[in-house]
Amino acid sequence: MLFFVLARKAYVSNLQYRGAHMLKNAASLVFGFMYVAIWAGIGSSSDLGARAAEGMTAYIAFNQSILWITGFLTRGLGIEQSVRTGQIALDLMRPTHLFIQRMSREWGQIAYQFVYKFLPIYILYFFLFSLKLPMHFSTYVWTFLALALAAYISICIQYVIGVMSMWTTESQWLYWVNYALSMLISGFFIPIEWLPSWLRAISMASPYPYLLYYPTNIYLDKVDPSVLIGSLMWCIGLTLVCLYVTRFMRHKLEVQGG
């Protein structure tokens, strides 16, 4: 019950900013058009061919849309701000685990971004680029599961980033390092199979492909859904990390400004 209460409050609190978020959607569309134009040019002037360019259009459109629910989450789940104000001390005293508190609120944020960012952006791409929808219902089920696991992985990563502010007083630099890595080796700018072999190996050993690359290719029927076993393993591993760092921070709490 607490999970749904916190998630609902986070969802409702975002509703008052719908107008501003629509403007962000417009900016996201502009970037998407730029990527599509680049790949259309590459496809028409190289041995990739028009079919490859069309495939990249579908890839970019879905990638750009799901970025709002698997990539653009609250920085550090807001823990850095709680540390600065001293609110973190009260959060740790609550009967509910800190990770559960922050995760529940973030799911409300993700639900909001799914409705007001993911869906509008992808619907516009669908009509503007004449995209094709998957033919099998199972593809939608597997895609939804892939996105849910990807969002959870991103939540765990942001939670660890936020917790690090307990010792660094801020975790903004970790956020931007994570952002840079996610853009580079998650398959956002370029499919992972086209990366240099050494960078591809680093990517495959990280959780980042499960944020964008695999969910997109599952939706496009390019990979087998069995890859979600990897997503599940990362979810379990990162959950254990989140629980461990929370336990550790309880023994060494330093509040700035509290």
Please describe what this structure looks like:
This protein has one domain (2-251). The protein is mainly alpha-helical and 258 residues long. Helix 3 (49-70) packs across helix 11 and helix 6 (98-128) crosses helix 7 (137-163). The model is unreliable at 47-51 (pLDDT under 50). The chain contains twelve helices and no strands.
Helix content: over 70%
Termini separation (Å)? 31 Å
Strand content: under 5%
What profile does the largest beta sheet have? none
Mean pLDDT: 81
Q: What gyration radius follows from the Cα positions, in whole Å?
A: 19 Å
Give the number of domains: 1
Order of helices and strands: HHHHHHHHHHHH
Unreliable segments of 5+ consecutive residues: 47-51
Number of strands: 0
Give a short overview:
By secondary structure, the protein is mainly α.
What topology does this entry show?
Layout: H1 2-14, H2 18-44, H3 49-70, H4 79-85, H5 87-93, H6 98-128, H7 137-163, H8 165-168, H9 172-185, H10 197-204, H11 213-219, H12 228-251
Helix pairs in contact: 1-6, 2-3, 2-6, 3-6, 3-11, 6-7, 7-11, 7-12
Quickly list its features.
mainly alpha
